[in-house]
Amino acid sequence: MKLSNTSTRIALFSKVAPLGKALSPVTKPLLGATLIELLSAVFAVLPYVLIVQVGNELLSPAPNAGLVWTLVLSAVACLVLHAALSMVALTVTHLTDGTHQWRLRRELVAKLGRLPLGWFSVNNAGQVKKMLQDDTHAIHYVIAHSVLDLVSGLAVPLLSFIYLFTVDWRLAIIALAPPLTYFIIFGVVTSRSSGVTRGIGEISGRLSGRVIEVLEGIQVIRAFGQTGKAHRRYSNTVDEYISRTVDWLLPLSKLQAAISVLLQPITFLLLILMVGTGFIATGRMEPLTILPFLLLALTMGNPVLRLGNGMSSLMEAMEAAQRLENTRGLSEIEEPMNPQTPDAGQLDVECKNVVFSYKEGHRAVDHVSFVMLPGTITALVGPSGSGKSTIAKLLPRFYDPQSGSIAIGGVPIREMDTSELYRKVGFVFQDVRLLQETIRDNIRLGNPDASEEDVVRVARAARIHDRIKRLPRGYDSIVGVDARLSGGEAQRISIARALLADAPIIVMDEATSMIDPESEAEIQHALISLIKGRTVLVIAHRLHTIVGADQILVVDDGNIVQRGTHEELVPSDGLYSRLWKAYERTKEGRGKQ
Ligand SMILES: Nc1ncnc2c1ncn2[C@@H]1O[C@H](COP(=O)(O)OP(=O)(O)OP(=O)(O)O)[C@@H](O)[C@H]1O
């Protein structure tokens, strides 16, 4: 029992702590707003107390009209003060929130900028959007609204209760029964559904991802006949989202039904009338004593509802703060203290004993060593899942290896400034991301200062110039708006971009066999322009394209099991010759069809 209490406390702390941390920069202004809201709560309750005095005065044997007017005007003044203070508190929280949101978003964007590029291969745009928009919005809601909701939701009924307690403690305790029952039900239901809320948050992130996946990749999905699959993935996520939401909403709607009865003013009035009449009838209470209870009962319901709203957004914010905290804790790509630059003339690439694991216990790259001499082509060949992409992605620091080193011109890439690294290493992978900008700006990402002639030159070399010219506004067409590009065309734009960047080392993924032959031929021509005179590391899927490579590294289960040229490897009895024979057979098969 003790153990479970301790673990519950630890679980609660671990939920509250990230939110506390997220709110720590705004503690002072929030405290100020809380005090103002507390004062406003006092002025919300005072008019009722004054009206009770008015009632008492009017029912007295000789009412004093002057005093009654003073009391009524004071009540009006209190109401005005209550409204004014609430407005000031709300302004303070909104101003605080404005600066905090800006700071938080800037911090997150800066963090995203320091994350290894590999993180973005696993976390899609939907998840990033959820973090930058939805999670920061959840924090916004707590700062701008929930804190005040909670303060007034607690303070107004509490002040009313204290006053009523001084009038008649027995009836005061009876008046406490409905909100107390509400808290118990609310507490039980929300603690039961907190796991589900977290689950819904995760699925909602995935759902945004699926929508973006379908929308962004619609051409590619269609071109590859994957519409059914993408749609199935999307509808499975929607089904999961609906089922989890129903799981979550069902107990909450039961609670809602309970709230509507428990917190109705009529519930308080009936309860007080029933018990109060009993007290009066049995001589335990003066008849006039019931008046403050009948009036203040009206103040109990609404603030408690505000408390309910405040609590549920607080729960959401706790989950959001946890996700933001997880993002803050992600390891960043380390920038060197004293960056070094390799000599432009000696850009050989050396991988020495490189080990990399995505997860503990499985090495995706296991003690890999190789050298790429300047101006040569190195091809990575191997079965699916053998580790080719991972090896290739280590060179532009999509991930950092756990051990071993990668150096360019003798300088470890970790010792190079990342901007310098990207000047040296360009990459063209299959999952091309184009920005919703003009085609020209998409190409110019490779070199923002490039002239119009240079943009056209690289577009021609990448075999995409004619297609761009056919677009409604040529190079000014905006991707996704008036330029709907196929997967192959997008890849050629990214090749043009890499050509413009003019990095001496290129890491690239060859076109897959899924693309249509015409597109593939165009991409191959574009790639030939790209690799001319550069040091190239290519992930090969179609073996005939790398027959002329200077060296072929045959990868199996994270290891390089063979290396050499095509002529050297074909005769030797190894994985390469088996892959080659299998490739020849499929080519023949396709030829016969
Ligand atoms: N982001 C990731 N997170 C976890 N594991 C991963 C990730 N990417 C790849 N892997 C795993 O690492 C291993 C190597 O994968 P990798 O993609 O490098 O192989 P590959 O040879 O390029 O395959 P393919 O030819 O199918 O693209 C596989 O076991 C794969 O499941």
UniProtKB/TrEMBL annotation:
Membrane topology type: Multi-pass membrane protein
Record carries keyword Cell membrane: yes
Domain ABC transporter, chain residue ranges per copy: 349-582
Annotated Gene3D superfamilies: ABC transporter type 1, transmembrane domain (1.20.1560.10), P-loop containing nucleotide triphosphate hydrolases (3.40.50.300)
One cellular-component annotation, GO: plasma membrane
Keywords attached to this entry: ATP-binding, Cell membrane, Membrane, Nucleotide-binding, Transmembrane, Transmembrane helix, Transport
Main location: membrane
Intracellular or extracellular location(s): Cell membrane
PANTHER family membership: ATP-BINDING CASSETTE SUB-FAMILY B, ATP-BINDING CASSETTE SUB-FAMILY B MEMBER 6
Protein's UniProt name: ABC transporter
Organism field: Oceanobacillus sojae
Lineage, uppermost ranks: Bacteria, Bacillati, Bacillota, Bacilli, Bacillales
